[in-house]
Amino acid sequence: MKILMVCLGNICRSPLAQGIMELHAPADWRIDSAGTSGWHEDERPDTRSILIAKERGIAIDHQRSRQVNEEDFETFDIIFAMDSSNYTNLIRLAPNEAAKAKVRLILNEAYPGENRQVPDPYTGGQSGFRHVYELLEEAVQSFIKKY
Ligand code: 4NP
């Protein structure tokens, strides 16, 4: 199984989603993350994401931001969007119907059909990152349990 986690900047939410999924997934799964924007290309995750992950025993500081590309729709089996804006942008980028079918909102794993969002924590404080972590932990656990 190959899973790509996608948010806007690939420095706050999707690096956490990647780290949490890597912790829970079978060892032979490939997990990666990317941003719909290239604004933070090659940057480390936001220090607030690094900190909240570290508190839970997950190292994400080796990750580097990159923009999602057309090849990702070939490489990955599932592409998880953090919010509906990421979702819409991914559907727009998807080269064909098979690629579109790979795109899902991540919180629908825990709350099917509700289209809940992982809020963008970038402009807030550490508590927003803690909230994002809890939401992603819940979604990842639900996905793994169902798989
Ligand atoms: P992310 O958060 O999409 O969870 O990585 C953001 C990071 C950067 C910006 C917005 C959201 N930004 O505007 O630079």
Account of the protein in words:
The N and C termini lie close together (about 10 Å). A four-stranded parallel β-sheet has the order 2-1-3-4. The longest helix is centred in the C-terminal third of the chain and has 21 residues, at about 125-145. It is an alpha/beta fold. About 40% of the residues are buried. The mean pLDDT is about 100. Helix 1 links the parallel strand 1 and strand 2. The protein is built from six helices and four strands; from the N terminus they run βαβααβααβα. Helix 1 (about 15-25) runs parallel beside helix 6 (about 125-145) and helix 2 packs across helix 6 (about 125-145). The protein has one domain: 3-Layer(aba) Sandwich (Rossmann fold). The structure holds 4-nitrophenyl phosphate. The site of 4-nitrophenyl phosphate (4NP) has 10 residues, from loops.
Layout of helices and strands, plus pairs?
Elements: E1 2-7, H1 13-24, E2 30-35, H2 47-55, H3 72-75, E3 78-81, H4 84-93, H5 97-100, E4 103-105, H6 126-146
Parallel strand pairs: 1-2, 1-3, 3-4
Helix pairs in contact: 1-6, 2-6
The chain binds 4-nitrophenyl phosphate.
